[in-house]
Amino acid sequence: MHFIIDIDSGDTISGWLAPDNPSSVPLFIVSIPGREDIELRANVLREGIRDLGLHATGECGFAISTDLIPDLPNIRDLEIVEAATRLPIYRRFQADLDVARKIFLFDCSVIPQRRIVNEIKNRFSLAYMNSERNGLETTVAIIANPYNQSIFISGRSVLMRYNDLLKEKGYVRAALLREPHEELAERLYFFNFLVREGDAESFAQYTTGARNLLEFARDLPFNDVKALTSAFRASTEQQRRELMSPMTKVFGCDVDEPPKHANVSKALDSLADFEVVGTRERFALFKDLLAGAVGVNILGDEEPVVFQSVKTLASNLAKIGIVNDLLADDLALYSFAEDAINEGLTNPEGMMQREI
Hints:
Layout lengths: L1 E7 L3 E7 L8 E5 L6 E4 L2 E2 L1 H5 L7 E7 L13 E4 L4 E5 L10 E6 L6 H8 L4 E3 L7 H9 L6 E5 L3 H10 L3 E6 L2 H18 L2 H7 L6 H6 L6 H9 L3 H7 L2 H7 L8 H12 L3 E4 L3 H12 L13 H10 L3 H6 L1 H19 L10
Parallel strand pairs: 9-11, 9-12, 10-11, 12-13
Antiparallel strand pairs: 1-2, 2-6, 3-4, 3-7, 5-6, 7-8
Helix pairs in contact: 3-4, 5-13, 10-11, 11-15
């Protein structure tokens, strides 16, 4: 999907969107709080978009004016989404509410921290979670969105694909790392819940790149270390690929590249160039560093929630050899990151956002 907002002059908002299916005519939904949503079919022919080969007919542009919404110039909060995917493509900036920064938070966790997410969404015009579920073209369009100045993106997209663009567009790049056994434990519990709940929509939203782990997690004997070891030994090759070091995949590998020890060095080199790097275990410190880089606390007063069952399972996973082999690169990456953070804490005056 490609999209661009050309202008919001107050009494007119115009742009275009080319769907993944270039022959389809896009449908937009205009949302204004307290009013019924307005559906708008593409109503402007964009021959240039057709000539670029992005759309079959060029019937992909839109113009929203006072003809459709008479009081358009006076509306502060207005959002436009693509109807089929519900992907937000534009929202009016509110200077007294929205943070005028662009941020990409790389977070490899799969379970949503809803209170923190809601806090973030209240601070930005546009917020995109689970970035990895969007294709390359859609993610590039989101990052490069030229008209919006308040954008927050979070997820486990492969850094190598987007790092240069993020720097070019002036994004604050932040990474929130997590102890690998604990992340795996929470992931397995969450996938087990999704399978038993049978919610196909949740499958699609949270399991990008890990669909084969749904069946693996279905009947795991979480409270029996010996049976748990047997389950990992019986895992398929594809399941093991999906279990392997997710943080190293994000920060040090190309798409579909299996992590190796050399990728840990690549990941560390990439993280050393980030504006902010922190860990879930030191979330308060991460929050302070991010606030320093952005100029305002965007995470509020909430803290990540970790259930005791997850901590217990993480402790059991750490006793299993095959699990440690699968997570070897992430364990090394996390150890190096923790050492850098601890070193920074012993020298607070020299501790900076880029210190990793």
